[in-house]
Write a structure and sequence with these properties.
This protein has helices at about 20-25, 60-75, 80-85, 95-105, 125-130, 145-150, 170-175, 190-195, and strands at about 10-15, 35-45, 75-80, 115-120, 135-140, 155-160, 180-185, 205-210, 230-240, 245-250. It has about 250 residues and is an alpha/beta fold. The protein has a single domain, classed as Dihydrofolate Reductase, subunit A. Strand 4, helix 5 and strand 5 (about 135-140) form a beta-alpha-beta unit.
């Protein structure tokens, strides 16, 4: 991670003292990536719930929303599963002039595409119809023929991958071939759980919301068997609203 001048990668940063450019520098991906780096971004309550009353947004804070935007602004692509693409506004991820200037100065494209993983080929029409920044769609070779025709007739870049279940390794390889190395995985939990289970996640930016919620909410990752990926802390960001964001990276 690119850090502020003179700052330790393990330093505790005060969000209120950092400009947006400083936050972009803090969360920037390594400059010399030769293959995709999968970074996930999630929020959870203090007791580990990923939603409050069925919505992750209800856990959000001003600090989390600010960092959420900066994490997008330093990525090459936002990667989501079909369910998340259908439930969140992924039609057009706008970039401010300041964010575009930061991106262009570091060799990134001015715009940010969305990549949707959908084995069956289910992608919201609004996402497919984004002609300004056409999405990338990873679809199974065994996808529904009718849905596949709709994909092929859209502006999307459709990439067919083998098998009924699209493998994490195949997604990584395909993104590498597209030159999209700074990958921000925004969910949902099903896709993230797959990446963890397949030992294919590289980083996790985890926001701890200052809330205890209890209840039946699930974790950010779940699987039938335990999976262990050793990670180390690479930076801590604290907000005046009680939010704590930690970037974890595998080693």
């Amino acid at each position: 991670m690119t850090t502020l001048a003179g700052a330790s990668p393990l330093a505790l940063h005060d969000a209120e003292t950092l400009t947006d450019d400083a936050l972009r520098d803090l969360f920037a991906y390594p400059a010399d990536l030769g293959s995709p780096l999968f970074r996930a971004n999630f929020i959870a309550s203090i007791d580990g719930a990923v939603t409050l009353e069925g919505s992750g947004r209800k856990l959000g804070t001003p600090t989390d929303r600010r960092v959420f935007g900066r994490l997008r602004e330093v990525a090459d692509v936002v990667l989501v599963g079909a369910t998340t693409a259908c439930s969140a506004p992924y039609v057009d991820i706008g970039m401010s002039p300041e964010a575009q200037a930061w991106r262009l100065s570091r060799g990134l494209a001015a715009t940010l595409p969305v990549a949707v993983v959908s084995s069956r080929g289910i992608v919201p029409p609004a996402v497919l119809g984004n002609a300004t920044v056409p999405p990338v769609v990873f679809v199974s070779a065994n996808a529904d023929p009718v849905l596949r025709r709709a994909l092929d007739q859209s502006d999307a870049r459709v990439i067919e991958l083998a098998g009924d279940r699209i493998s994490s390794a195949a997604i990584r390889s395909a993104l590498g071939e597209l030159g999209l190395h700074r990958v921000l995985v925004e969910g949902g939990p099903t896709l993230f759980s797959q990446f963890v289970s397949d030992n294919e996640i590289d980083e996790l930016c985890l926001t701890t919301s200052p809330k205890l919620v209890c209840g039946p909410a699930r974790r950010i990752a779940a699987a039938d068997q335990h999976v262990e990926i050793n990670m180390q802390r690479r930076g801590i960001l604290a907000g005046a609203d009680g939010t704590v964001i930690v970037r974890w990276a595998r080693y």
